[in-house]
Inverse folding.
């Protein structure tokens, strides 16, 4: 599986799982969430990874595993927020370029 850490854009094949890794500050109550997921992208799972041992105050990571069902260019938006507060503390947007994949299809024009 392809893994991208804090990217601005990613290039993947349709049907190929990929992971987006964002720095997380879970102890402060802020958690990353996917917002406005395009219909062609499916969130397979989301995991919180703790910081390494012996690192007080270090940040962990949030890993989003996704898969694209069709070719195209899609904008993916994440928000970092506390569940009990309105609005986002931080937003992160990235562009996902999806090629036709192993099925042999060409990207839509």
């Amino acid at each position: 599986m392809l893994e991208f850490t804090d990217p601005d854009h990613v290039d993947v094949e349709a049907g190929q799982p990929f992971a987006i890794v964002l720095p997380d500050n879970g102890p402060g109550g802020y958690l990353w969430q996917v917002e406005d997921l395009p219909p062609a992208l499916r969130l397979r799972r989301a995991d919180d990874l703790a910081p390494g041992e012996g690192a007080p105050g270090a940040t962990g990571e949030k890993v989003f595993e996704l898969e694209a069902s069709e070719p195209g260019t899609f904008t993916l938006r994440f928000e970092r927020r506390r569940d009990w507060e309105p609005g986002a503390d931080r937003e992160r947007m990235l562009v996902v370029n999806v090629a036709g994949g192993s099925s042999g299809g060409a990207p839509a024009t």
About this structure: Strands lie at 2-5, 9-13, 18-24, 31-35, 41-49, 60-68, 72-81, 90-99. The chain is about 0% helix and 55% strand. Residues 27 and 59 are 8 Å apart (CA to CA).
